[in-house]
């Protein structure tokens, strides 16, 4: 449990929910991973189950319950809300799928997407967690980080410092079959009013259709879309 608010039972409950959200957990696994007394872990997990925050799977392990999904429906994110129209416009303008990614630790998460309706496409489900070690969105999300963070990601990534230098120079990045064979993408940063990169706006699709130089056709509409999203924010 890395975060402490000083309200012990709340911190323990949140830690249990986060633990079960990553993968189903038995009581013994909760005790081992969180270092909680067995009676405490059981009491809190059972209370969360009663409130439908957790539920049991077919092996009697705790997993995230329906109350989490119900509450999530009320969550509003200005970044996501502002992006939906822009993603659809970008999809229609380019004929390719468009996504919005944000970084969370060592992963990038697709928080919004607009897929082309037919033909070959790169489908990235909303909520998908992808590696920060490959793909144009990863390039963009790491390019303006501090040196220590950048070194950590580059240590075993599919891209190099030269890639990052190119991102900083052009303001966008492209990748061909770096994340997945046959898939190409191009991404641009989305910044807040202080200039901090808060998201990556991406276009992706089959490498065969997008071509070996995605920037030639797609960089301008992508940069225009990123600028529009920044204005909306």
Automatic annotation (TrEMBL):
Name the SMART domains for this protein. Answer: HTH_ICLR (SM00346)
Q: Name a biological process GO annotation.
A: negative regulation of DNA-templated transcription
From which domain of life does this come? Bacteria
What GO molecular function annotations does the UniProt record carry, in alphabetical order?
A: DNA binding; DNA-binding transcription factor activity
Return the SUPFAM superfamilies for the record: GAF domain-like, Winged helix' DNA-binding domain
Has the keyword Transcription regulation been applied to this entry? yes
Q: Which UniProt keywords apply?
A: DNA-binding, Transcription, Transcription regulation
| Cross-referenced Gene3D superfamilies | 3.30.450.40, Winged helix-like DNA-binding domain superfamily/Winged helix DNA-binding domain (1.10.10.10)
Q: Which residues form the IclR-ED domain?
A: 67-233
Annotated HTH iclR-type domain ranges read 7-66
Q: Where is the signal peptide?
A: none
| Entries under InterPro entries matching the protein | GAF-like_dom_sf (IPR029016), HTH_MetabolicPath_Reg (IPR050707), Tscrpt_reg_IclR_C (IPR014757), Tscrpt_reg_IclR_N (IPR005471), WH-like_DNA-bd_sf (IPR036388), WH_DNA-bd_sf (IPR036390)
> Under what name is this protein listed?
Helix-turn-helix domain-containing protein
This chain's source organism reads: Epidermidibacterium keratini
What taxonomic lineage is listed for the species of origin? Bacteria, Bacillati, Actinomycetota, Actinomycetes, Sporichthyales
């Amino acid at each position: 449990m890395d975060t402490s608010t000083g309200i012990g039972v709340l911190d323990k409950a949140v830690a249990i929910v986060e633990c079960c959200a990553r993968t189903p957990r038995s009581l013994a696994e909760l005790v081992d991973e969180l270092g909680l007394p067995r009676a405490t872990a059981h009491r809190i997990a059972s209370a969360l189950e009663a409130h439908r925050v957790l539920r049991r799977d077919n092996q009697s392990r705790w997993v995230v319950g329906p109350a989490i999904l119900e509450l999530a429906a009320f969550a509003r994110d200005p970044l996501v809300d502002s992006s939906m129209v822009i993603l659809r416009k970008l999809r229609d303008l380019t004929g390719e799928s468009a996504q919005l990614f944000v970084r969370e630790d060592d992963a990038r998460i697709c928080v919004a997407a607009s897929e082309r309706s037919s033909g070959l496409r790169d489908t990235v489900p909303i909520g998908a967690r992808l590696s920060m070690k490959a793909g144009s969105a990863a390039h963009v999300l790491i390019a303006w980080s501090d040196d220590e963070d950048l070194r950590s990601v580059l240590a075993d990534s599919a891209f190099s410092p030269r890639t990052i230098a190119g991102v900083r120079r052009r303001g966008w990045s492209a990748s061909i079959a770096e994340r997945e064979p046959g898939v190409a993408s191009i991404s641009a940063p989305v910044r807040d009013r202080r200039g901090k990169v808060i998201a990556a706006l991406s276009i992706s699709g089959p490498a065969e259709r997008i071509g070996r130089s995605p920037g030639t056709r797609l960089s301008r509409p992508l940069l225009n879309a990123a600028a529009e999203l920044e204005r909306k924010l």
